[in-house]
Amino acid sequence: MSQRERIQLDVQGMTCESCAQHVAQALQSVPGVIQVHVPGWEAARAEVVAEAGVSDEALTRAVAEAGYRATVRARRLLEPNGGRQRGGDASYDLLVIGGGSAGFAAAIRAAEEGARVLIVNKGPIGGTCVNVGCVPSKALIRALEAYHRAGERRYAGVHTVPGALHWHRVVAQKDQLVAELRQAKYVDVLAAYPQITYLEGEARLVGSAHVEVNGTTYTPSKVIVATGASPWAPPIPGLAEAGYLTSTTAMTTRELPRSMIVLGANAVGLELAQVFARAGVAVTVIELLDRVAPFEDEEISAELARHLADEGLTLVTGANTQQVERDAEGYRLHVRLQDGTQVTFTAERLLVATGRRPNTAGLGLEAAGVDVDRRGAIQVNEYAQTTNADIFAAGDCAALPQFVYVAAHSGTVAAENALLGLHRRLDLEALPRVTFTDPQVASAGLTEREAREQGYDVRVSVLPLEHVPKALAARDTRGLIKLVADGATDRLLGAHIVAPDASEVIQIAVLAMKASVTVTQLAGMLFPYLTLAEGLKLAAQTFEKDVAKLSCCAG
Fold this sequence. Notes:
By secondary structure, the chain is α/β, with parallel strands linked by helices. The longest helix has 25 residues, at 167-191. It starts with a strand and ends in a 14-residue tail after the last helix.
């Protein structure tokens, strides 16, 4: 491989994202340029990887011809072998602790800039999402959804039956998918980036700039901590002694119990509760707060609870578990309800789904000058930088929303800011979230209560799915769409959906909020007929009209 350089330029004159694209195109046209990255017009910078010998004049002239001004700020030779040294010195530009979504996103972005990267990982490669989170849970959810629907009687003249459920085969197929994606999306990806070295081991920060791994000390230029999080259980008397399933171990069990208690009614608890209920397990869900899905809009929580109860799940909210006991018969949970009543719930198995806590213990963060909050989450600023300027953090170990797409985004931002000295901000505006129950819950932006607490002139529309033609044709009108708007500006503040495949619709609302689309504009847009997405238009029209009095496709 011929020798290459990484060249940093200051660029003046950019005023919008189109400008940034024009600058990138201009630089890419220069002979010898291999990669170009313009992080955004506000950064006023560009990064180029080029064959050695590409002149400053050629680069600045190309930018000038596009209508902007550029000066070369720094040039650095890159090693032809991609820097795959394994020594314990300063041979790496970036050391990433953690081999999950955040860690890989950071490492890949750094490699794209020509940096030499070391990933140190403890545990299965791929982290939470592919191994014990998104992928396996959604595989089980979809399998049991198919089984459940086979027993429904939606359509006249169509007769289906669920047949026998072979749970162990469902779990085996889930495991196969996990193994395939772990190989394709992580192991095989490493081969495409020779600049990245992967090392299994336990990393510990030593002082402010050193990292010790398996007895060897490394001194990289920058460090990104991306160690993820693990299931957490509250300190309930008797719980630890009794033992319990977590979201991780519940998805590996090969035999179904007759009954199960699920402690926790947020996304993970509800998703797995419905999976086991649809598999024939008698499920009781116990939640400390006063409603299931307690962080969603209140109408959304109530709507979801109604449909879960219709399927036979027992939902107990406002319930404080006082003690857990276990014997040969199973578990006994002694619970105090909000009115002071003491109730005992029994079941063969107990699944604790009360949240996750960051994997930060034993990393040496305090000695490195890295602050954490009371949950152990690493404190980061808007640039994913910790209280140690040379250490960044990304993903579930940081004080950020625990979603895989946030992990990947924060890993990329951390790598760019750490290596290029940029100030790219974490963009969590109108962050979408999904609970993959059936019907699903998908939300973004402010709830009605949050909007009122923030002082907006709140307007709300609620559209039951019985007014969405797609739902009528599918014989499935479970759910609703709720929009929250600012009466002063007509701007959409929040969107909250309970519906089958709500996850496929919420991003439209996210784009509308990020682009400051008004409710009036949303109501006037053309949506394809007989789609769930059309429900957003109808919900927007509901602010001013009774959609029950409109004909099909009425504008």
